[in-house]
Amino acid sequence: MSAPHVSLPDPTPLPNLPHLPPPDPLTSPYTGWTRAHWEAVADRLLDALTPYASPNLAQYRLPGPPSHSGPWSDGLEGFARSFLLAAFRIAGAGGQGAPGLIERYTAGLASGTDPRSPDHWPPITDRSQPMVEAASLAIALHETRPWIWDRLDDRVRQRVADWLGGFVGAVVNDSNWRLFQVITEEFLASVGAPHRRSEIDAGLARLEDWYRGGGWYTDGDGRKFDYYNAWALHLYPVLWARIAGPRADPGLVAGHRARLRSFLHHHQHFFGADGAPVHQGRSLTYRFATTAPLWAGVLADATPLPPGRTRRLASGALQHFAERGVPDAEGLLTLGWYRPFLPVTQRYSGPASPYWASKAFLGLLLPEDHPVWTAPEEPGPVETADVRLGLPAPGWLLHSTAADGIVRLVNHGSDRLPPPPARADDSPHYARFAYSSATAPETPADRAPDNHIALLAPDGTPSPRGRIHPLGVEAGRAASWHRAVLPGSAEGHRIETVSVVRGPWEVRVHRVDAPPGTPVREGGWAVADDTAPPAARTGSGWALARRADGTTSTIAGLHGWQDARAAVAHAAGTNAYGHHSATPYLTLPAHPGGTHLLVTLVVLSADPEVNDGDPHARCSGTRVRVTGAGEVEIRFPDGTRDRVPR
Q1: What's the confidence (pLDDT) of residue 36?
Q2: What is the model's pLDDT at position 4?
Q3: N or C: which end of the chain has fewer CB within 10 A?
C-alpha cells in the first residue's frame, strides 16, 4: 500500500505545555518539533516539580499512591530521576540557559547526604530501591561534572561518595539492576572514591549471559523481553562507557555498540505513524523513555538510522503523549499511559517513577548543530511501506501497515517468567498473543478475552496462557505452544499456535487438546475510547468492535468454529487507551475431544479500505483449506497464499 500523504504539523496549542515554540515545518515536516520543543518540555517538567520539593530540596514527594518502598524512598526517586532530566538540560546548554537548576540540585545533594537533615536520603541496602536511584544520580553527576560535582564543597563531595558507596559489596537483584551497580561504582572510580572493580566486571559479564542475539537481551534469566532491552540493557552500557572513558575495555565497548546498532535496526519499527510505541511489557508509565536508545545510538556512533529519522521517531513519541495530555495540567507525569491508570504500574511504582522518562531527553547532550537536530525529518518505517519483521530472539513477529500507521506485535516468546520450575503466572502485558501501537490489553485480565485462546471452566473462568514455549519465527509467521490448565486441575492441555500475518491480517492456526465438551474461547483486539463505548456488530462466525476514529477489531472463525457463538465483551475502566473498551470474541460450546484444529482470522485496522463494506464479505475474503494431511492452506484478501504444515 502507498504511504499516506505528509500533512503539515498541527499548530494547535497544547494547554498543558503553554510555552512551546511554534512548529518548524521546514526542518521537521512530520512533527514540527525541534530541539527548542524538547527544551521547552524539559523546562515545563522541571518547573512543575518545585511545589513538591522538600524544604532543603533533597526530595520531591509527588501526589499519588506510594510504592512498596514507601514515601521516604519515593521522595529520593523524585530527586534522582528529575536530576537526570536536569543534568541533560544543564549539560546540553553548557551550563547556561537553565536558570536555577544548578543551584537547586546542588542544594539537594548537600541536604540529601547529610544525616542531620530532615530530608536526607534512605541508605543503599541490599536489593533496595535507592540502588536504582543511585545510578541516576551517578549519571547526572558525571554529565554535569564541570558545573556541579567539581564545585561542590569537599565535605559534600565526600558525603555523596559515601552514600553512593553503599553499593560496594551490597547484594543486587540479578536483572538490569546489575547495571545500576556498574554505573554507580564506575562513577566512584572516576572520582577516586572506594569501589570494587570486580563488581563492575561481574555486572558487565552478567549482561553477556543474557544476550540472545540480534540485538536482544533478556532482563535476567528466562524469556523476559520488553522495553528494558531499550531503556536499560542497551542504554546503560553506553552511559557506562562515557563515565569509564579510557578505563573501559575497547573490545567490550565495541561489542556493546555493535549490538545496539543491531537492536536499533529493529527498534525503529516499534513506533506507529502517530508516534505511539507498541504497548507491551512492564513499566509502561515511563512512556517516551522508549526513545532513549535512539539517542544513545547517536551518542555512541552506533546507529544505522539517518539523523532525520532518529529525530522524527523520538519527537513523534514525545509529541504523541503531549497531544494526549502528558504531562497533565499541572505539568506532572502521572502513573498511567495517557490519563492516570494504575493497572500499567507495578508494586515498585511510586508517584515519581514516571520520571524515568527523563532518559528520553538524552539527545540534549548532542550539540544543537549536530545533524540529528538540523537534518530534515525523514519518515519512520511504518510510514513508507507495509512491513513484516521476524525477531527470533524474543519470539516476536512485527507487522505494520502504511495506510493506517499501526504497528502490531505478535508474541510467541516473551512471558517474563523465571526458568522452570517457577510458577507460571500470567501478566496481561506479556501473556497476550498480540500487542500494538493503537491498543492496550485489558487489565486486569482475569476473565478478559482479548488476544487469548482459553479453555473455559464450568464457571466461565478461562485457562491462562502461562509459560510460552517458542517453536520458531520466520518471515511472516511465528509459532509457540502453551499448556492450558483449568482452575482446580493439575492436568494441562497443549495448545499449539502458528500465526501467519499479511498486511493488517493475522491468521491463527491452533491445534487444541482438551477433554470432550470443554468450551473454547478466543478473542481479538480490545479497542478503547474515552468518548463513548465502541460500536459492536456480530454475525455468523464473526464479531467486530469499532471505536469513534474508525479503528476496528475483527475476529472470524475460518475453520473448526462450527456452532460458535460470536459476541463482543464491553468493559469500563480496564484499558489504558480509554475508559470504554470492547473486545470481539468467539466461543466454541464444546470441544470434540482429542486434538481439534481451529483457524481464526484476527484483524486490527484503521484503513477504510479494510474496514468499510459488509463485515461478512470482508471476513470471507480470507479463506482457508485444510488438506487430508492436516495442512492448512491460507489465501489472504490480496491474493497472497501461505500454508501451515501439520
Answers
A1: 98
A2: 42
A3: C
State how far the alpha carbon of 361 is from the alpha carbons of 36, 145, 440, in Å.
12, 18, 25
Quick check: helix, strand or coil at residue 189?
A: helix
10 Å Cβ neighbour count for 127?
11
In tens, the pLDDT along 391-410 reads: 999 999 999 999 999 999 99
- The length of the chain is 646
Which residue(s) pair with 336 in the sheet? 340
Q: Is the bond leading into 340 cis (omega within 30 degrees of zero)?
A: no
Task: Give the chain's residues under pLDDT 50.
Answer: 1-5
Do residues 80 and 29 touch, judged by C-beta distance below 8 A? Answer: no
Q: Which residues pair with 337 in a beta bridge?
A: none
For residue 78, what pLDDT is reported?
A: 98
Query: Do residues 181 and 136 touch, judged by C-beta distance below 8 A?
Result: no
Q: Grid coordinates standing for 41?
A: 518540555
The sign of the CA dihedral 598, 604, 610, 612 is: positive
CB-CB contact of 282 with 226 (8 Å): yes
Cα 480 from Cα 395, distance rounded (Å): 9
Q: How far apart are the first and last CA of the chain?
A: 32
Question: How far apart are the C-alpha atoms of 329 and 102, rounded to whole Å?
Answer: 26
The Cα angle at residue 498 between residues 494 and 500, in degrees rounded to 5: 165
Cα dihedral 409→411→415→421 (10° resolution)? -170
Instruction: Please say whether the beta carbons of 306 and 375 come within 8 A.
Output: yes
Report how far apart, in Å, the C-alpha atoms of 583 and of each of 140, 265, 455, 556, 587 are.
44, 33, 18, 13, 13
211-229 burial code (b ≥16 CB/10 A, e <16):
ebeebbbbbbebbbbbbbb
Say which amino acid occupies 445.
Answer: A
CA–CA dist 304, 289 (Å, integer): 20
Question: Would you state the pLDDT for residue 99?
Answer: 80
Q: Check: CB of residue 49 under 8 Å from CB of residue 77.
A: no
pLDDT at residue number 3:
41
- Calculate the alpha carbon distances from 291 to 257, 262, 363 in Å: 17, 16, 10
Quickly count: other Cβ atoms within 10 Å of residue 51's Cβ: 11
Note if the bond before 327 is cis, omega within 30 degrees. yes
Q: What pLDDT score does 5 carry?
A: 44
Cβ neighbors of 559 (< 8 A, separation 6 or more) are: 597, 598, 599, 624, 626, 632
How far CA 123 is from CA of 18, 152, 399, in Å, comes to 39, 21, 46
Count CB-CB contacts under 10 A for residue 559: 17
Hey, what's the cell of 348?
A: 515498585
Task: Give me the pLDDT at residue 1, please.
Answer: 41
Burial class (CB in 10 A: 0-12, 13-18, 19+), 612: exposed
> Is the Cβ–Cβ distance between 546 and 552 less than 8 Å?
yes
For CA atoms 50, 53, 55, 58, give the dihedral sign.
negative
**Angle at which helices 71-92 and 130-143 pack, to 10 degrees?**
20
How do residues 232-290 score in pLDDT, each as one tens digit?
999 999 999 999 999 999 999 999 999 999 999 999 999 999 999 999 999 999 999 99
Kind and range of the H or E run holding 62? none
Residues with Cβ within 8 Å of 167's Cβ and at least 6 positions away in sequence, in order, are: 124, 131, 134, 180, 181, 184, 185, 188, 199
User: What is the pTM assigned to this prediction?
Assistant: 0.97
State the cell numbers at 183: 554505573
